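Database export, one record per block. Field names are fixed; values are copied verbatim from the stored entry.
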Amino acid sequence: MEKEYSFDGPGGKASLVDLFEGRRQLIVYRAFFEPGVYGWPGHACPGCSLVADQVAHVAHLNARDTTLAFVSRAPQPDIARVKARMGWTMPWYSMTDEFDADFGVDEWHGTNAFFRDGDRVFRTYFVNNRGDEPMGGTWSYLDITALGRQEEWEDSPEGYPKTPPYSWWRWHDAYGADGDDDAG
C-alpha cells in the first residue's frame, strides 16, 4: 500500500502499521457507530453490535501473530463508553481519513485483512455485506489471513510458520504477557 492512513485510538494518533500492534497480520472490521447511524450515540448499529458480541477472545488471534481491530467514525470517548457498557475488549479506533472509502467499507460493513512486512502493508483479503456475518470466531478470522491457522496440515509455502495442531492452544489468560504464544 502506498497511502498512509491515520486513526485516533485510546492512546492517541495511530497509523495503519500501528494497528498491527507489532504483529504480522491485521484484521480490520468496519463498524457503523457514528452520527446518523441507527442507535447513535448509545450504540453502534444493531448488526455491527451483534458482530462485536460474537468476537472470541483476541488473545487466541494474538498467539498466531494476528491483531483484530474495529474501526468507525465515532470519537474515542463514545467508543470507550459503548465498549465498557457492552463488555467489548477488542481494540477500536476512530477513522480520520478516507480509509473506509478506499477499502470498500464506507457504505456497508466489511472486513479487511492485511499482512505486514516491516513497514510495508499488503491488503490480502476483503469481504463485506452478508459475507462477513459469520466472522467472530478465532478460526473464521485466521482462515481469512495470509498465514492461515499456521498449522502443519495446511498447504503453505516454504518458510511459512507452522506448528503441530493443538500445540499452540492455551486458555486465553495463559499466553505470554503480550498475548503471543510464548507460554507453555
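Remark 1: The helical segments are 16-19, 46-54, 59-62, 76-86, 99-102, 138-142.
Remark 2: The mean pLDDT is 93.
End of record.
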